Structure formats: structure tokens, C-alpha cells
Amino acid sequence: MQAPVDNTNKPKPPTKIANDFVRYLVGFGVGVAIGLAPYLGVLDIPLFTPLLSLIPATLQDTVIPLSAAIMGVVAVVIEWYGRERITLVWLRKMFNRTLIIALSAFLILISIHTLYVVRIPIDGASDAVSFVVGLERPLREPCTENISDAECIKLLTFDPSLVSSFWGDRSIRTASLMLMLAYLVFTSTFGSLVGLVLLRNRRKDSTNT
């Protein structure tokens, strides 16, 4: 049987403000990420494919914590404005602006994904793997002019390092950066839209009381 943990000597924040700071930081930083786990693609939900599936597996370990951090920031901002007196005009203006940014980011994300991501079916097309590639493929062995990008990656044995070497490391990193930025901008603006709806409902509830 495991002995009980003694928390009597555990360091504690020196003041109430510092204690509240730690509590808020953990709440917004960890709690938001845990709550958004299905949306972030950390948990598998039947009949639901997360947006994260557009991102190749080699980038997901970077994108997931960044997306969780941005969502935490969005939650802090919504909490801040939730304690302010905001007008319906301001909410409508912010919603329209954020919606335009979200739609633009979505279109950019789809465009970058189409240009720079190659999705290759495996296991009899029951599954697939994705790779980030450069915009222009070098025409050299083993990938000649008549071979598709997907077939080229198969010839490179699905090795990310070989794919990066073939297309060019700088080209791959540039494409990966654009893909991640588009994804993060869209997810953060989508979260902001949800937060603005929440602020509008809270304002409506406060005016009815």
C-alpha cells in the first residue's frame, strides 16, 4: 500500500494574489486544454474527425500544445471582457470582424493544405498518412516527371527525413510554418467567435435581471 503524501512542507504562493495567479494560470492553461481535448484531436470521438487530421502527424506534436495555449489565451480574454460593460454594437462589430478573419483563415488553410500536403491511402484505403512537401518537386531519381507526389513519397519509403531532403529542408519548413499558422489562426478565431456568443448571452441575461 502506498504511503500517503505529506503536503505540509509543500511550497505555497506567498500571498493571496500569487495564490490566485497560480490557480487561474493552472485553470486556464490546463483546464481549458483538458476540456478541449476532443476538439484539439487528443481524444478519439466516434463519427467525429477533428480538424487536426488536416495536419500531418509529424507536426501534430507541435500544433496541439500551441493550439491549447492559444485557446487558453482566448479564454482569459473572454473572461476579462465578461467582467466589463460591453455594448451590443461593440459585440456585433467584433463578431463581424472575427468572422471575416476566421473565414479567411479557413480558406487559406484549405489552400495551403491542398498545395503542400500529400495524403496517401494505406491499408487498403482504410487509413492514410500525410506529408508536407514543397511547392515544386525536383525532377530527379527516383521521382521522374511522370510520377505523382504520392508515388514519389512511396518510393522514398515514407521516411520524413528522405522526403525533406528530396524537396529541400527549407522548403518543407516554410510550408510547415504556413500550414501551422493558418491552422492556429483559424482555431483561435473560431474560439473567439464562440466566446463572443457567450458574452452576448451573458449580457442578455444581465439585462433581464
How would you describe the overall organization of this protein?
This protein is mainly alpha-helical. It has a domain of 140 residues. 64% of the residues lie in helices and 6% in strands. The chain contains seven helices and two strands, in the order ααααββααα. Strand 1 and strand 2 form a beta hairpin. The model has no long low-confidence stretch (mean pLDDT 86).
Write the layout of secondary structure elements.
Blueprint: H1 16-35, H2 37-40, H3 57-82, H4 88-116, E1 117-122, E2 127-132, H5 149-155, H6 160-167, H7 169-208
Antiparallel strand pairs: 1-2
Helix pairs in contact: 1-3, 3-7, 4-7, 6-7
List keywords for this structure.
two-stranded antiparallel ribbon, 7 helices, 209 residues, single chain, mainly alpha, 6% strand, elongated
